[in-house]
Amino acid sequence: MQIGSTLVNELQIGSRLNEAIEHNRRGEFGLLLAMLSSDTRDMAQFQFDLELNTDQKLRKQFALPPAQRLVDDISTHPNPTDNAHVFLHQGARQFQLQQALTPEAFVIRGKQPDAMVEVLSNCDELTKRKALNLYQQHNVIEDMHFLEQLATQRKISQTIASSYA
């Protein structure tokens, strides 16, 4: 008689051990126990979550929330967590509770690295737009001559005056 697969832990048996006890089948119960591996590392509780790394296993074991994000990127998450309004309206104790429930990132920034953000914060608006490629070159508007502007304004004022008369 050839055995198709070896039994390693009790998960592979399923409920057969329970049924053997319930129906008083000592022989089957003894055979099933003898077929199990005697190595404790093969027991079912050590076979769970093999694909998880150590950090994930510990978080699952101690029921910890996901790790707090240290840097939040506004370009990928347009609505970052902001608990400041809780502090303003409900006080420090409620802020601490809210921070524990939904922690906000320590640093919030966009696509630019820290050094570039610091440099751009010291620049004027036009330089910022050019650095971020948001600047659009506008067409040159031909200015009217001053006398032409005066003539146009006189015509407009005469039209308005004649409509009220």
Radius of gyration: 37 Å
Main beta-sheet annotation: 2 strands, parallel
* Order of strands in the sheet with most strands: 1-2
Count, helices: 9
Q: What portion of residues belong to β-strands?
A: under 5%
Estimate the global geometry from the Cα principal axes: rod-shaped
Helix content: 40-55%
Q: Termini, distance in Å?
A: 118 Å
Overall average pLDDT: 79
Described by its quaternary structure, the protein is single chain
Q: What class, by secondary structure content?
A: mainly alpha
Number of strands: 2
What do these coordinates show?
With 165 residues, the chain is mainly alpha-helical. The radius of gyration is 37 Å and the shape is rod-shaped. The chain is 48% helix and 4% strand. The mean pLDDT is 79. Helix 2 runs antiparallel to helix 3.
Summarize the structure.
This protein is mostly helical and 165 residues long. The chain contains 9 helices and 2 strands.
Keywords, separated by commas or semicolons:
single chain, 165 residues, two-stranded parallel sheet, 48% helix, rod-shaped
List the helices and strands and how they pair.
Blueprint lengths: L9 H4 L2 H7 L3 H10 L18 H8 L9 E3 L10 H7 L1 H10 L5 E3 L4 H8 L3 H7 L14 H19 L1
Helix pairs in contact: 2-3, 5-6
